[in-house]
Each structure stands twice: as C-alpha cells, then as structure tokens.
Design a protein that fits this description.
alpha+beta, 27-stranded antiparallel beta sheet, 15 helices
Length: 681
C-alpha cells in the first residue's frame, strides 16, 4: 500500500511527529523507513522527505524519491566553514526486514539506478570565501544480510567531539554479508582551485562484522585531477590521469585504531591488524609532460601495537573545539610526544612494488622492484631496490644500480626527537642527548652501481659495497665490517692538483680501488680488534693494517664522553702495517726528483736519511737502524714494507706514555717492534 511521506519546511515537523507517534505497523520495512526519517530530523536535517513508500510484501517496501539535506556551519583552526549536504535517492528497496534489539536487519537492500550525494560550501578566512563542491553518484547498489545499527550521538556542549564515540563503538555491531556497487563516480572542486573526477567500477564488500571487513574489491579506477599551480609557474594548471586495475584489500579492522585513540577498551580487540593484505594490479599515470606506470603493488600486515599507550584524540578534539588546548611549551611538547608515540605504534609486515617506469622529455627511468619488511616509524627490518635505471636528457646523464639494500634501520622514538629539538633550540645539546637520537643500521649493500654523463670522461662505478654493523651499545656498533670491491672514478674528479698529478704520473685515467675493514670489540676480554683495515689502488699499491688493543672497558661505548678514561686501562697487544707494490711512492719520488735535478734513486736515499735524522733517540737503536735500512730499500723500490709490534705481554698505554717521556729509545724493545722491506728480493 502506498504511503505518502512528503514533507515541506512548513508542514514537515507536524507530519513527522504524527507519523512517528503512530503505533508500529505490521511491516517492519515501513517502520525502518519511518525510523530513518526520524533519525534524519533528530540529527538536524533541513530536508527530509520521501515521494512515497510502497509496501510490497511482508517485511518488504520500496521508498521512492527520497531527499535529505543538512545545512551546517562550523569553525576549524580559525576558518569558518559552511557545508550543505544533499542526498537524492530515486528508489530504495527494503527486502526481508526484521527488527532486532540492535537495529533493523535486511535480507536484501537495493538502490537501483543513480543515487546522488552532494557536498557544497565554502571556507572563509580573513573575509575571503573559497568555495568547494563535491558530488558522488552511486549506480546500482545491492547489499545482502545487512544489519544497520542506528547512529545516535547525544548533544553535549562540553564534549563536541567525544560525544560521537559511543555511536562509533555501537556501529561496530553493523554487519553486511555482501555489498556490491556497479559504479561510483565523483567530481570535486576544492577551495585551493584543484578539481578532479574519479570513477570506480565493480566495488564489492564481503563479510563486514564486528568492525572488520573480510574483503574489499574494486575492479577498475579512473581518476583525473587538475591542480592550480603557484604564481610564476609556466602553466596555470597541472593535469594528471590515473588508471588502476584490480584492487583487493583483506582483513580491514578499525578496532585497533579505535583502541589506540582511546575510543575502545582493549578487551574488544580481536587482533592487531588494521589491514591483513592489500594489492593493486596495474597503475598507469599520464600527465602533460610524460607518463608513469607500476606493474603491481602489494602489502601485508598493517598493524597497531596493542601495548602502545592510548592517545585520547577525542578529548584533545574537545579541547581544540572549545579553545581550551594548553598553550605552554611543556604541555604542547608532551602532547606532541604522545601523538608521535601513537604514530610509532603502526607497523607494516611487508611492502612490494614491482615494475615502476617513468617516461618524460627530460627524464626516463625504471625500477624493477622496491620491497620493505617490518617497516614502521621506527625504521624497518629490510628495504631493497633492484634494477634501477635512470636516464636524463641533460648531459646525457645515467644512473644504474642492480641492488640497493638496507637492513635493520632503527630510529629513536619520535617523541625523543621532539624532546631533542626543543632542548637544542635553547642550548647546545649534550653528547648523550645527541646519541639518544642517532639511528642504528645493521646492513647497507650496493651492487653494480654506475653513474655516467657527458661531463664525465669515464663512468663512476662500484661493483659492490657492503657495510654490516651489529652488537650496538647506545647506539655505537661494537662490530663493523665494510668492504668495497672495484670502485672506480675518473682521475679528473680528484680536486687537489698535486694529488691528481701524482695519479696521472702512473698513466692512470681512472682510479680503481678496493677496501676492507673489520673492527670488533669483545665484551668478555675487553679487546678491540682491527683485522684488517686495508685498501688497494689498482696500479698504485696496497696497505694492510692490523691492530689489537686490550683493556677497552664497556664504559667507552656506554658513555663516550668518558672515553679518555680508556688511557688508564688500555694495552697494546699487537699491531702490524704492510705496504705492497706502492707505485704511488715511486711516482711521488719521480715527481719531486725531476724539478730538483736529481735521479729518483738519489732522492729516495736522501729522504731515507732525512727520516733517520728525525728519529731522535731512536736513530742509533737496533730498530732505528733497521728502519733506516728498510726505508732506503723501500723508497728505491717500494715492493713491500712490513712493520710489526708483538710484545711478549700486552703493554699498558700508560707505560708507553711514561717511556716516551723518560727513555724513548727503549720503546721499540718494549713493544718488540720490527721492520722489514722487500724481504722477497
């Protein structure tokens, strides 16, 4: 039976009162239509009308020509906002409606055809109003097994924001077996001049219950956006178009977020995931000067730490709306720290992007993949980028990299950075304060890095580089391993003239080098070892340093400002320095000999004699004489120079300082120091 429920501004209030004052009908579908109308009026609707409501069966009804509107005005951050909301629904079918203690349950809910939602208004600041307009059109909605819990928020002038929390929490009881929208279109014009159009094809929601959605799907998305540029830019606007293929999101759950924001008790949680997984297949972007594409994108495990302290956003919103936020620096800093810690509660198990490509007249590039694991505001467990290739039109520049990887990057809590910046704004930070915000990095790897340009006579490249750090103590690593293999760069990049001339004397156009460093501290023996610190310049020579220092206490790492205390306990266990094939030494001597009118050999012997004369008390000791002879042999033919320190027992640093002050000529014997040159000749 048809029931006219059209309301006007003059008669609407009376008719609403009569309709809702009447006893419930025998058809809960009609009651549900009446209830929604009353809800709209109770929540400030200035327009609330149905063209007609027709009973089509027991528990079934069709609502035609429904119109709702709200005219709102409020202030945000000193700006006045006026907002008009309009909803026009030509036809809504309520099928299999029953009333429960939580709300109305519908076996099926249909909105065939086009249904429009419009949001228009403006933002006024300093007497200037900038208008905005957003329109959304929904086509052919069908929902099954639908329980709609009424949204009811009690008026409370002292709680303008938090008064909505009970309604939001109650809304967790809403359930939807499945919902499908054939198409959704939206157009927008924003106060900053930006405008856009979006369309979504095949939108599906499956399994919505207890605040969690099992799966959401969108088959295709098209977006066109126009942004107004700043004055002085060549074009007045910049336009971009995006086309996206299948998008699937599983396990969406808002309860962890509500718990974090203080709106939900922890015992309501059913897990810590906000999103279990998400994937996007095929994203294509086009703009006036080029295009970009992403083959696929996916993520898993977006989580909120259930142990993170709750951050009462609603109460802060109340204070902001009422103008009661604290203004003193200490309170604002504490509030900022709480907000930062709330952000740090979020983490992501994994992120994977593949086949990124960019094309434009000035830049073209591609990335094979970008992956991250265990990511959060505190860093990540692993991040990698593979098969990077970028080419720029200017100077024909190109950058290529097979692999860039970082692991175990850990940052200090965000609140600690806020404390640091506040403290350092008034004074110089202390060393402990600086160390409190220093990040730690477990691993850095690069492979097949190459940079080329018309401005470079030869590419800059690295076959591989690896830096590993571990066993951190506040936040200093006590184990470091670094290795560079086959790094090269043009000699012309050496800025210092004499150094460049020295390398050029070797007839080198490119400097190629490799290095290796291993440093470790043993907490049980308190021994600091360097084994090795070495580098090799191809065609120029190599150096290898090894050293072991005992008596290095933990306090050196825990309180670096007290590092000078190590002098009292440190001991020299052993050390060695080996230099081989030092053609750079020969080139230096030849470079200096020529303008002096000397032969290289004569200059080499003279330099050795000069070094001997500067040894002071060591000159006439057995070690001094060995060193003099070794230098003469090495400087004439720099094949190999080996200096070793191997005392029978570790020698305290304090003893070494005392010997240097009183009997320096005995130091080589104390350290059992030896030197050899060209031993293989």
């Amino acid at each position: 039976m048809p029931r006219s429920l059209r309301y006007t501004t003059t008669a609407g209030a009376l008719l609403v009162t009569l309709a809702l004052a009447s006893p419930a009908t025998a058809n809960p579908a009609l009651d549900a239509a009446d209830a929604f109308l009353q809800w709209a009026k109770d929540h400030g609707a200035t327009i609330a009308e149905y063209g007609s409501v027709t009973e089509t069966g027991t528990g079934d009804a069709i609502v035609r020509d429904a119109k709702f509107g709200w005219d709102l005005a409020f202030s945000i951050a000193g700006a006045n906002v006026d907002l008009d909301i309009r909803i026009n629904s030509p036809e809504t079918r309520l099928i299999g409606v029953t009333k429960t203690d939580k709300g109305y349950h519908l076996d099926r809910y249909e909105q065939p055809g086009a249904h429009e939602f419009a949001f228009s208004g403006g933002v006024t600041e300093d007497g200037v109003r900038n208008a905005f307009d957003i329109s959304v059109i929904q086509y052919d909605l069908v929902a099954e097994d639908y329980l709609q819990v009424p949204f009811a928020a009690q008026e409370d002038a002292e709680r303008p924001v938090s008064r909505f929390l009970p309604a939001i929490v109650a809304g967790l009881d809403t359930t939807i077996g499945k919902m499908f929208v054939r198409r959704m279109e939206s157009t927008s014009k924003m106060p900053d001049g930006a405008s856009g159009m979006q369309s979504y094809e095949g939108m599906t929601i499956t399994g919505f219950a207890n605040g969690r959605i099992e799966e959401q799907r969108i088959e295709k998305t098209v977006s066109e956006t126009t942004i107004k540029t700043e004055p002085g830019v060549t074009a007045d606007t910049v336009a971009m178009r995006e086309e996206t293929g299948l998008q699937v999101v599983t396990g969406t759950d808002m309860k962890p977020l509500l718990r974090l924001f203080g709106a939900l008790p922890a015992d309501r949680l059913t897990g810590d995931e906000i999103i279990a997984s998400a994937s996007v297949e095929g994203m294509n972007f086009s703009f006036a000067e080029g295009s970009a594409a992403i083959g696929s994108l996916s993520m898993t495990g977006l989580r909120i730490d259930p142990e993170a302290p709750a951050f009462d956003v609603a109460s802060i919103g109340d204070q902001a709306a009422l103008g009661k936020l604290p203004q003193d620096e200490a309170s604002l800093t504490a509030l900022g720290g709480q907000a930062a810690d709330a952000l740090a509660a979020a983490s992501l198990d994994s992120f994977d992007l593949s086949a990124l490509a960019i094309s434009s007249p000035i830049l073209n590039g591609a990335i094979g993949s970008i992956q991250a694991k265990d990511a959060s505001y505190r860093g990540f467990g692993d991040f990698s980028m593979t098969d990077l290739s970028i080419k720029a039109e200017e100077n024909n520049a190109a950058v290529d990299a097979k692999l860039f990887r970082m692991s175990e990057l850990r940052l200090a809590p965000l609140s600690r950075y806020i404390d640091f910046f506040v403290a350092s704004s008034n004074r110089e930070p202390t060393l402990p304060e600086i160390l409190s915000v220093v990040p730690t990095l477990g691993l850095l790897e690069m492979e097949d890095i190459k940079v080329a340009s018309d401005e470079l006579p030869a590419p800059v490249s690295i076959d591989s580089y690896r830096l590993a750090m571990s066993d951190f103590i506040s936040p200093i690593p006590t184990r470091i391993e670094a290795m560079t293999k086959n790094a090269s760069f043009p000699v012309s990049l050496i800025e210092e003239d004499e150094a460049r001339a020295l390398v050029e004397a070797l007839d080198l156009k490119v400097v190629s080098y490799s290095d290796e460093t291993r440093i470790s501290w043993n907490p049980d023996t308190q021994t600091l070892s360097i084994d090795p610190l070495s580098f090799t310049i191809e065609g120029g020579g190599s150096m290898d340093l090894k050293m072991e220092i005992g008596g290095v206490p933990r306090v050196v790492f825990e309180s670096p400002e007290q590092a000078q205390m190590v002098i009292a306990t440190a001991m020299v266990n052993k050390a060695s320095l080996t230099v081989r094939d030092a053609r750079l030494v020969s080139a230096f001597i030849e470079q200096q000999a020529k303008p002096a009118g000397l032969s290289p050999e004569t200059l080499a012997l003279g330099l050795a004699d000069q070094a001997a004369n500067e040894m002071g008390p060591l000159k006439d000791t057995p070690f001094g004489q060995s060193l003099h002879g070794a230098l003469k042999s090495f400087l004439v033919s720099p094949d190999e120079l080996v200096i070793t320190i191997e005392p029978e027992t570790p020698v305290p640093a304090m003893q070494i300082m005392g010997v240097l002050a009183t009997a320096p000529d005995t130091l080589p014997q104390l350290l059992n120091a030896t030197v050899m040159a060209n031993s293989g000749r």
